[in-house]
Amino acid sequence: MNKNELVEQIAERSGLxxxxxxxxxxxxxxxxxxxxxxxxxxAITGFGKFSVAHRDARQGTNPATGEPMHIAASKAPRFSAGxxxxxxxxx
Length: 91
Hints:
Helix content is 44%, strand content 30%.
């Protein structure tokens, strides 16, 4: 399912127009992005939890040359599925 199909599903299930559903989805995604950028966790009961994973700096190996290289510390978004979402996927 792509974003347009998701907007159609939201509009259909909520009674909103496609334009309103698109705005609602955009606002939801922006709120999640802003929260994660601020270092906050976003928990949606039953659905899941969005969080930020911190990766420490480390030594790696350049696969082309085999030489050691420094890999900088970074942050990455994480998602952990909630119980209701896990159950829905099992069906």
